[in-house]
Amino acid sequence: MSFVWVDTEDDDKWCLKTAMYACKVFESKKTAENLRQCMDDLLTGASCDPDNIPVTTDKGANVVAATSRKQQQTCLCHRLNTAQEKAWDNVTSLQVCMISEI
């Protein structure tokens, strides 16, 4: 089960404020077109122009394609997770070394 949500952030005098407009269970196949339609419907329902709004996403090919008409901001947490996974993929053996004080 996946979720799609629409929220906003307002930085007012260094006080970050977030408001969620919508959250929807996404049961359809996660194609770019289905994701785009779902996001556009949620944004339109929140009185936002779907073609003129920045989005923060992961780098999944379907999500990138679904948001290609929008200003994209990469999610830092997803990027760090991907970097960590790639790093561990390249580990062939793990040795624990004890360093003693001289």
Written overview of the protein:
By secondary structure, the chain is an alpha+beta fold. The chain has one domain. 33% of the residues lie in helices and 28% in strands. The strands form two sheets. It has a two-stranded antiparallel sheet with strand order 1-2. The protein has a two-stranded parallel sheet with strand order 3-4. The longest helix has 14 residues. The protein starts with a strand and ends in a 13-residue tail after the last helix.
Content-based structural category: alpha+beta
Strand order of the largest sheet: 1-2
- Helix segment count? 3
Q: What is the approximate shape?
A: extended
Q: List SSEs in N-to-C order.
A: EEHEHEH
What is the total number of structural domains? 1
Which regions are unreliable across 5 or more consecutive residues at pLDDT < 50? none
